[in-house]
Amino acid sequence: MSELRSIDRTTRHRDTLTYPCSFEGQADLTTSETFLRRQFRTGAPVW
Q1: Which one, out of 16, 34, 35, 38, has a CA that is 20 to 30 A from the CA of 44?
Q2: Is pTM, for the whole model, over 0.70?
Q3: Which domain of life is it from (predicted)?
Q4: In what helix (H) or strand (E) does residue 24 lie, and over which residues does it extend?
Q5: How do the domains of the chain map onto residue ranges?
């Protein structure tokens, strides 16, 4: 999955997120992956 930057136009419908670039993913999994990538990139503790 490429880095998804725009969250302003992201649509959540039940368990699916749809981004302006046409990417669709499972909402909780996609959000968790994005969170972890950002945490590791900044060096912030995950817990």
Answers
A1: 16
A2: no
A3: Archaea
A4: strand 24-26
A5: 1-47
